[in-house]
Write a structure and sequence with these properties.
Layout: H1 3-11, H2 13-47, H3 51-65, H4 68-83, H5 89-115, H6 118-126, H7 131-161, H8 173-184, H9 187-220
Helix pairs in contact: 1-9, 2-3, 2-5, 2-8, 3-5, 4-5, 5-7, 6-7, 7-9, 8-9
Length: about 220
């Protein structure tokens, strides 16, 4: 990377910062909405009956099986054919990523809940604890601690997937880098900078997940 290239990256930092903010906004919003979807789908599969269980299982299977880029393109380009209107690129990306994250988290939540020893919930019920408090005070807190490493993994995956949103015009980090590089022809320097940005986000998340996993292993010994 030459000094000219570095100086060009420095001049482009305001644009890259705007893209990074859109990336983080998209990631946090997708994780928040996806968490709500995932929790409801998880509870639907665990507590529901008949048709509800089938619908939740179908949702999980479909949205875990469709590539994220295909889902994003389908919502953005096929929306006008079905609903008569074209969603904005940001809303299409947000819907696609939220549905994808929700499908992943529903299985993670379900696995965490099933990993909680049944005896604890049964003991609480035998003492007359209302079902709401059994879930909120006994089952869900323990399940959440179990799935924290997996949740961090999904968050990291969501950060990576967010780059796909540039293909439909969302002005996130990759999009801004591509526009800036097209103006200066400094593709190597710009996308090296993008790689550094992603690394600075993802590496600490990886370290946190590994550290928490080591703590869980020590507690089980």
């Amino acid at each position: 990377m030459t000094l000219i290239g570095i100086s060009e990256v420095m001049r482009s930092l305001p644009e890259l910062w705007v893209g990074l903010r859109f990336t983080l906004l998209l990631v946090f919003a997708s994780l928040a909405i996806g968490s709500i979807i995932g929790l409801f789908v998880c509870l639907g599969r665990l507590l529901g009956r008949g048709l509800l269980v089938g619908l939740c299982a179908t949702y999980t299977t479909i949205f875990r099986g469709i590539p994220e880029v295909v889902l994003m393109f389908w919502i953005y380009y096929c929306g006008p054919l079905l609903g008569g209107f074209r969603p904005s690129s940001l809303s299409a990306a947000l819907v696609a990523m939220s549905l994808y994250v929700g499908a992943l988290l529903s299985e993670i939540f379900r696995g965490g809940i099933l990993a909680v020893p049944r005896g604890q919930a049964e003991a609480a019920r035998s003492l007359g604890v209302p079902e709401f408090w059994v879930w909120t005070s006994v089952i869900l807190p323990q399940a959440f601690r179990i799935v924290i490493p997996a949740l961090i993994g999904v968050a990291a995956l969501t950060v990576k997937v967010s780059g796909i949103a540039s293909t439909i015009g969302v002005t996130e980090l990759v999009f801004e880098a591509n526009v800036t590089a097209g103006q200066s022809y400094r593709y190597f320097e710009m996308f090296t900078a993008v790689g550094v940005f992603y690394f600075l986000i993802l590496f600490p998340m990886s370290m946190i997940a590994k550290g928490y996993e080591r703590k869980l292993v020590k507690r089980r010994k």
